[in-house]
Amino acid sequence: MNLGEHTLSALRVQLRAVDCQTCGRPFLRWQRPALAVYTDGEYADASLHHVGCHRPGWHEGWIEPVLDRQHLSWRAGTFVLPARLMLGLSSDDIPFFLVNPAFEAALLHHRDGRGWQVWTVQFFKELGLDLRGSTALSSAGPTPTLAASIEDHRISVTVRSGEAHHHWPNIPIFPETARLVRARGSIVVGVTTRLDVCQRLSHPEIAAGATSGSMAVGVAALAPKGKGRRRRKH
Ligand SMILES: [Zn+2]
């Protein structure tokens, strides 16, 4: 069994060798990572490792600690999408939390006739987000599995559904963006593996990504102040 060239090239675009998923230490600049794939029925998990830390190739069964994600890198940023880019969808500026949830690992799903497909963003659809971004952007109602909290010019977003739990804490947010979130009582959350959250992105790039089906989009209700995690000590 193998992934096929189409899926391998999608993984090459999506996966970024930041930290080894076995030992957690960074990859050296020109170090070629080992790609390990664990399968369980129609689902699989592909991840990057130091060649000396993990055998590359296909492995049957989910094996800890590869899947506990303790070494997984992610990046997130916040900004405001101007209303003029959202014509027909919203008459308001939209506060946005954009996250790339998995640099060194990807979920795969096998479908008859189509083989293995990269499935990381689609997984968030299973958690209640929407791949038709326009629906989430025009929807007034929050996504039940999403929650956000703001503290000290930083925002944290959580996705929780059944056993699945993703937490992206302490992302800087400008005061004017935070004001907009408080006024709406929510922030739009976009999950992408295509846009590089660390790079400067144009608003049209983000708006196009949100409505292209390659981004899972939801609305996180803002938790009342004081609710949620404890205040950090200074
Ligand atoms: Zn390693």
Give the tags.
234 residues, alpha+beta, 2 domains, seven-stranded mixed sheet, five-stranded mixed sheet, 12 strands, globular
Fold and architecture overview:
This protein has 234 residues and is an alpha+beta fold. The chain folds into two domains: 52 residues, no CATH class; 133 residues, no CATH class. 18% of the residues lie in helices and 35% in strands. It has five helices and twelve strands. Strands 4-5-11-12-8-9-10 form a seven-stranded mixed sheet. The protein has a five-stranded mixed sheet with strand order 3-1-2-6-7, with helices on both faces. The mean pLDDT is 86. The structure holds zinc ion (ZN). The site of zinc ion (ZN) has 7 residues, from loops.
**Major β-sheet profile:** 7 strands, mixed
Instruction: Tell me the overall shape.
Output: globular
Bound molecules: zinc ion
Q: Report the order of strands and helices.
A: HEEEEEEEHHEEEHEHE
Number of strands: 12
Measured by DSSP, the beta-strand proportion falls in 25-35%
Number of domains: 2
Our count of helices gives 5
User: How many angstroms separate the termini?
Assistant: 54 Å
Q: Average pLDDT across residues?
A: 86
The assigned structural class equals alpha+beta
Any chance you could write out the topology, listing elements then pairs?
Elements (H helix, E strand, L loop, with lengths): L4 H10 L19 E7 L2 E7 L7 E4 L14 E7 L12 E7 L4 E7 L3 E4 L1 H7 L6 H6 L7 E6 L2 E8 L2 E9 L2 H10 L1 E7 L10 H8 L4 E8 L12
Parallel strand pairs: 1-3, 5-11, 8-12
Antiparallel strand pairs: 1-2, 2-6, 4-5, 6-7, 8-9, 9-10, 11-12
